[in-house]
Amino acid sequence: MDNMLSRKVTCKSHGQDSSYFLGWQEYDKNPFHPVRNPSGIIQMGLAENQLCFDLLESWLARNQESNWFKKRGESMFRELALFQDYHGLPEFKKELAGYMSEIRQNKVKFDTNKLVLTAGATSANETLMFCLAEPGEAFLIPTPYYPGFDRDLKWRTGVEIVPIQCSSSNDFKITVSAMEEAYKRAQELHLKVKGVFITNPSNPLGTTLTFQELSHVITFSIEKNIHIVSDEIYSGTVFNSPQFISIFEALNKKSFNNNNNNKIWNRVHIVSSLSKDLGLPGFRIGAIYSNNETLIAAATKMSSFGLISSQSQFLLSRILSDRIFIKKYIKENRRRLRKRQRVLVSGLEKTGIRCLKSNAGLFCWVDMRHLLTGQTFEAEMELWKKMVCGFGLNVSPGSSCHCNEPGWFRVCFANMEEETLDLSVQRIRALVDSHLSIAK
Q1: Is residue 254 among the annotated active site residues?
Q2: What pTM does this model have?
Q3: How far apart are CA 271 and CA 233, in angstroms?
Q4: Pick the catalytic residue: 103, 226, 228, 233?
């Protein structure tokens, strides 16, 4: 009966058969629990920030009025229950714009009229693809990149992804030559390139883009007359130097305000979210920011297919408006992320495993090339299956992130208790020991 369904239903472009998603399926069959299932699979493939829930829960306990949708003692229930304007609650947009500036050390200001609310960053990224490209046109993306982009950017939009191949030889930094090679490859495939899509800070690398890298991307986009999409959903997870530089800050620094280059401002678009910064993926808070009025008008209309509930907007406007709390939260979140990352990195170092030096994110990019039976992606998958099924660790293999070098893995550290992370390191040590015993 499949011939009665659309091609969208039966096509394989969703990416569900990626090892990234297959690992989740294995975890769901046998999830770790310290009491009920201590031998189960530990989920290290989920980039969630669970380190500061106690701060949010304490705020909610102190501010019960916000929980019950009251404002100055008056019930807001009726107003919120009937509100359905896809422009969003003005108060929430104001506070969200302020928070976005705060995360960027107020070096970038955001105008609420240029902000579109979406149901998470997934919706924001897909909406931008619908707005910026026709089916069959392409975006260039530096590798390695988040496996979900194969779904978010391609599945329903028909947009193609052409990888910008980055290398461990320079810590996976974006180079002009790599962008030119990707552009040439797209032309060979007869694909019209509509833009460069960057993730800053990077998922899965856990690094912030340098000013030089951002300059390369901006100059390249001006020369090719294409767009830039900067996914900055991890901007609030930067826990170490160097500081995060937003694409808009880089544009300001390069002073692209003359008549020849000012058009680039209309071709640069930011994606933001509260899923990683505040650890609230279930609230589905995403946003698009752009100076392109036509795009903002269209994206606002499209947002009606994935609105944020008015109740969520109301509650979060209250949290974000508490400036003292937010400043404290940002500082403490960074401290806890830095400490937790150090636990994983130092633990792995003791087993002879190194990580790419990182300063952001909820994960480490881990080098396990020396544990492969051969420098092939088949050997990488063999090691990954051994980790999942033999040692109870679901991590994301580099091939799922389109890394062109086998043996790298993304390992998350902020979605579990520290005791569970310690156990994870113990299991990795056992994996290394088993490899050494076989080698002998």
Answers
A1: no
A2: 0.94
A3: 7
A4: 233
